[in-house]
Amino acid sequence: MLRGFYTAASGMMSQQRRQDVLSNNMANALTPGYKADQTSMRAFPELLIERTDSKQLPVNHSVNIPNNKLIGSLNTGVYMQETIPDFGQGDLRETGMSTDLALRNGQMPDENGSLFYTVQNQDGGTSYTRNGNFTIDADGYLVTNSGHYVLDDNGNQIQVNHDQFNVTSNGDIQVDGATIPLGIVYHQNPTEDFTKGENDLYNIDGDGAEPVNARGIGGVTFEVRQGMLERSNVDTAQTMTDMMQTYRNFEANQQVLKAYDKSMDLAVNQIGRLR
């Protein structure tokens, strides 16, 4: 009986957390470069149920032989193990703003690989983003919409001073007679080595492999589109369907929990009552 309480409660908690992830995806459906999170559910370790029995042999001394039979396995609950970003390419939309840059994946040597802009985070280190909704700060530096400096190929801040610049398809910024290669890196498996931070930034997870300059990797092609932005890759119709399904699963576990609670009430307050 008590095991049923815990199983139903774990189901409710896991569905609530999944709903939070889906709601966050829906809230960022219009965020440029946003990558939808996917959830991974996992059952608690299974218990193997076995029936213990014995068989009596027809002999003079009544010898009993153990006769155990496996009934099957029983899961004791479920939990949301992790959230995994989907780094699939989003559609491009035109904005007409010279500071908006859309990064489009081309040929990749690994099917899980992806490309990112390099930016300077608050700690002075390097973070990565797909959001090309850039702007120019008061000092003339190219920054993200959250104020992080956009970096070039050598990890330096990019100063353009004005928005009258051109960006070639291979990511070179041409301004006032100078050419500044935009910092674009490639990572072969960001799903494993990246963690999602704030303001659409990704960071290396612990001992994860560092991304490398995309221009120095054979088999990697990309295209930078000026005056365009990459949309989020959130499928709003599928997300709404998943949210409804998650809500129904939560309700089902809730009804099971109520049934267990009613049965426990009868067992405690009526079956055991002395008359």
UniProtKB/TrEMBL annotation:
<keyword id="KW-0969">Cilium</keyword>
<dbReference type="InterPro" id="IPR037925">
    <property type="entry name" value="FlgE/F/G-like"/>
</dbReference>
<dbReference type="InterPro" id="IPR020013">
    <property type="entry name" value="Flagellar_FlgE/F/G"/>
</dbReference>
<dbReference type="GO" id="GO:0071978">
    <property type="term" value="P:bacterial-type flagellum-dependent swarming motility"/>
</dbReference>
<comment type="similarity">
    <text>Belongs to the flagella basal body rod proteins family.</text>
</comment>
<feature type="domain" description="Flagellar basal-body/hook protein C-terminal">
    <location>
        <begin position="225"/>
        <end position="267"/>
    </location>
</feature>
<protein>
    <submittedName>
        <fullName>Flagellar basal-body rod protein FlgG</fullName>
    </submittedName>
</protein>
<dbReference type="Pfam" id="PF00460">
    <property type="entry name" value="Flg_bb_rod"/>
</dbReference>
<dbReference type="InterPro" id="IPR010930">
    <property type="entry name" value="Flg_bb/hook_C_dom"/>
</dbReference>
<dbReference type="InterPro" id="IPR053967">
    <property type="entry name" value="LlgE_F_G-like_D1"/>
</dbReference>
<dbReference type="GO" id="GO:0009425">
    <property type="term" value="C:bacterial-type flagellum basal body"/>
</dbReference>
<feature type="domain" description="Flagellar hook protein FlgE/F/G-like D1">
    <location>
        <begin position="112"/>
        <end position="175"/>
    </location>
</feature>
<keyword id="KW-0282">Flagellum</keyword>
<feature type="domain" description="Flagellar basal body rod protein N-terminal">
    <location>
        <begin position="5"/>
        <end position="35"/>
    </location>
</feature>
<dbReference type="Pfam" id="PF06429">
    <property type="entry name" value="Flg_bbr_C"/>
</dbReference>
<dbReference type="Pfam" id="PF22692">
    <property type="entry name" value="LlgE_F_G_D1"/>
</dbReference>
<dbReference type="InterPro" id="IPR001444">
    <property type="entry name" value="Flag_bb_rod_N"/>
</dbReference>
<keyword id="KW-0975">Bacterial flagellum</keyword>
<keyword id="KW-0966">Cell projection</keyword>
